[in-house]
Write the structure tokens for this entry.
Amino acid sequence: MVHLKTVSRQKAESRKHETESRRLNYLFICSMLSSVFSLPPVFCLLSSFSLLSPAPAFAHKTEVAGDVAGTWHVEPNHNPKAGQPAKVWIALTRKGGQLVPLSKASCRMTVYSQPRKAGDKPLLRPSLQAINAERYRGIPGATVTFPRVGLYQLELNCTPKNKGDFKPFRMKYDVTVAR
């Protein structure tokens, strides 16, 4: 009985990851097409949820920057607590779904308090490490301890280690920290 539950859970996780991968690829392609055909960016986001997912995945934010798409994850359950370590990781992919591991990119993460003004200094500069999370291998991740309850913005800046692998990019993710 326990084995059947494990297999069912693994199948459900596999379906979830396949859907997420399709959504990432779709968002990347849609963002490229929307810039060519002058479609509003919200078109890509709304259609990705309605066409590719049986239920909306509201906890993850996917962003396309240049030729790389990134999906942010904050553990536990996108609900970090003040004063407790939270695991933050970003699944980076290129067109076609090819993973961008940390070994191929020079990245840095910064954490800012919100509201943020131009010229504000980062509150934290967590050290990035190549981690394995879910089905992703070698992706950028960090442990972040948010000092207090409030709004924060995570920022990831990356450049390719090999010139021409991808365009340098910046991605941002807003986080609400609770008690």
